[in-house]
Amino acid sequence: MPPDPDDAPSGTSRLQVALAVDADVDRAAAVLGDGRLAWLGEPLPAADDRDMDRFLIDLELRVSDRAPRVAFRKAAYVEVGPLVSDPDGEAISLPISWRAAGMTPLFPVFAGRLSWGPGELRLDGYYAPPGGSVGLMADRLVMNAAARATGRRLLERIAESMRASAAGSAGGARAAS
Fold first, then answer.
1. Range(s) of the domain holding residue 124
2. Which of 93, 119, 105, 107 lies closest to 150 in space, CA to CA?
3. How many domains does the chain have?
4. What torsion, rounded to 10 degrees, do the Cα atoms 165, 79, 146, 153 define?
5. What pTM, to 2 d.p., does this model score?
6. Omega within 30 of 0 (cis) for the link into 3
7. Which of 69, 110, 136, 146 could in theory staple to 127 by disulfide, Cβ–Cβ 3.0 to 4.6 A?
8. Is 101 helix (H, G, I), strand (E, B) or coil?
9. Is-contact 8 14, C-beta < 8 A?
């Protein structure tokens, strides 16, 4: 059941997106941990003294997957924190946030968690739509669909890295035999 929008901090909207992914915990930890560059892009110097790595990435909103493909891209600063495991080692997660790299007042700011559990990648957090209360109303009417689509595309990008990692491992295993 989706969370009640009234539970969101003032001026924000909830973003929850999940994607089925075929990966074990070791592969997920490799891609979300040391393999971050495969899906995050260009590393940047840290913005402050928090334990967060900073990257410049193009976030993508696909309008159509059919030919001709239409997508909007926006450069964003993405910060990710250390990977943590749940007590039983069955799930992992890390803090993640992003904001536009330019024209920042026109784009939302997101903060939340990126997690992997058996068979699923999940993005869960809150974003502040631009434009104050008018932007929040527009978000509830239309723009939340764009936020969900952008979050889903990021999860698809991570899942692609997990598949590539698996293919590389399988190829390496075949070459070693």
1. 5-176
2. 107
3. 1
4. 0
5. 0.83
6. no
7. 110
8. coil
9. yes
Q: How far apart are CA 142 and CA 3, in angstroms?
A: 18
Please give the sequence-ordered ranges of beta strands (E in DSSP) within 81-162, or none if there are none. Answer: 84-85, 92-100, 109-117, 120-128
Per-residue buried b or exposed e for 135-159, using 16+ beta carbons within 10 Å of the residue's own CB: bbeebeeebbeebebbbbbbbbbbb
Q: Which residues face 99 on adjacent strands? A: 77
Tokens representing 177 are 């035999």
Q: What is the pLDDT of residues 116-131, one digit of tens each?
A: 999 999 999 999 988 8
Integer Cα distance of 105 and 3 in angstroms: 27
Taking the C-alpha atoms of residue 151 and residue 135, their distance in angstroms, rounded to an integer, is: 19
Q: What is the CATH number of the domain that holds 43?
A: 3.30.530
Predicted confidence (pLDDT) per residue in 60-99, tens digit: 877 766 667 777 888 899 999 999 999 998 999 999 999 9
Provide the strand spans (E) within 65-108.
Answer: 70-80, 84-85, 92-100
Q: How far apart are CA 81 and CA 93, in angstroms?
A: 9
CB atoms within 10 A of CB 34: 10
92-100 and 70-80 strand pairing? antiparallel
Residues in Cβ contact with 84 at an 8 Å cutoff, skipping those fewer than 6 apart:
92, 93, 94
* 3-class SS of residue 76: strand
